[in-house]
Specification:
about 290 residues; alpha+beta; Tumour Suppressor Smad4; 6 helices; 10 strands; about 45% helix; elongated
Length: about 290
């Protein structure tokens, strides 16, 4: 092999090695950019979820679980993931095309294509609906979504970052009030008039004339009040609510319209509601 030929061979090999190195470096840089972008968008979503008070923020980093997390932020049922998650949509679309192509050959491709187009339209609707509800939750005009559509996602990224990393947009409503630790039952008429009885969370108290069974004892010489007249419990959830069960002979009534509670049937009672036992001589208000 002559000198020029050897030089050409070495030059070719060196060029090939450099090309391979450049391809590897370019691939690694591309992968790095993709990973960094994925981590950034996931962190952005997690911050949005934290502001929306959605738990399990780690899901923002996991495909499919990420879509369920997004749906929870806008109070959308989890099963919408089949029409919302890009991963799921691509998988199901491919499955539709494969099944129809195998089962119905040529005609199946046309049918499958139409189904996939419809499916993709539903997917786009779900994505747009998500943006509308997300921006409504953070008090942003839903018309911003038009900008998201026309700019290929740049506006979406900008507003998501503003929500996630700044206080420009406030989250939905005020912080929920702390749960009350106990309920209070005020006597408006009767021997205990003016007294307020505390009811601990999930505690059950009984009103009646039997001191062995009732925590609030009402002496009734005419025995119109039963030995165990009603049972009351307090649940601190949802701002605090009460449950009343009438176990009496002569009944428990709502003071506002004189309607009678169903016997032996637990009834949810809102705070501020007044009831009476048998008649208005024994009235109580739930505070």
């Amino acid at each position: 092999m002559s000198g020029p030929e050897l030089l050409a061979l070495i030059t070719g090999i060196a060029g090939g090695v450099v090309l391979i190195i450049m391809i590897v470096i370019g691939t690694l840089i591309s992968i790095g950019i993709i990973v960094a972008a994925y981590i950034f968008t996931s962190q952005t979503l997690q911050n949005i979820g934290n502001k929306a008070r959605v738990k399990d923020g780690w899901r923002a980093y996991v495909p499919v679980a990420k879509s369920i997390y997004q749906l929870e932020i806008v109070n959308r049922p989890w099963y919408h993931v089949f029409m919302f998650s890009p991963t799921v949509v691509v998988f199901i679309s491919g499955l539709i095309i494969l099944l129809f192509a195998v089962a119905i050959s040529g005609a199946g491709i046309v049918i499958a294509t139409l189904l996939v187009v419809i499916y993709f339209c539903v997917y786009l609707y779900e994505r747009l609906w998500y943006l509308v509800k997300l921006y409504e939750r953070f008090k942003i005009s839903p018309f911003v979504v038009l900008g998201c559509i026309t700019t290929g996602g740049i506006v979406t990224l900008i507003f998501n970052c503003l929500i996630a990393y700044t206080d420009v947009f406030t989250k939905e409503g005020p912080e929920p009030p702390p749960r009350p630790k106990e309920g209070h039952l005020r006597c408006d008429a009767g021997v205990y008039k003016g007294a307020v009885f505390p009811i601990q969370a999930n505690e059950v108290i009984t009103i009646g004339r039997d001191s062995a069974k009732a925590q609030i004892v009402i002496d009734s010489s005419g025995q119109d009040i039963s030995r165990e007249h009603c049972q009351i419990s307090f649940d601190p959830r949802n701002g605090g609510e009460y449950t009343v069960t009438d176990v009496s002979v002569n009944g428990v009534f709502f003071a506002n319209d004189n309607s009678k509670l169903m016997k032996n049937m637990p009834v949810k009672i809102e705070r501020g509601t007044t009831i009476y036992l048998v008649n208005r001589n024994n009235m109580f208000t739930f505070q």
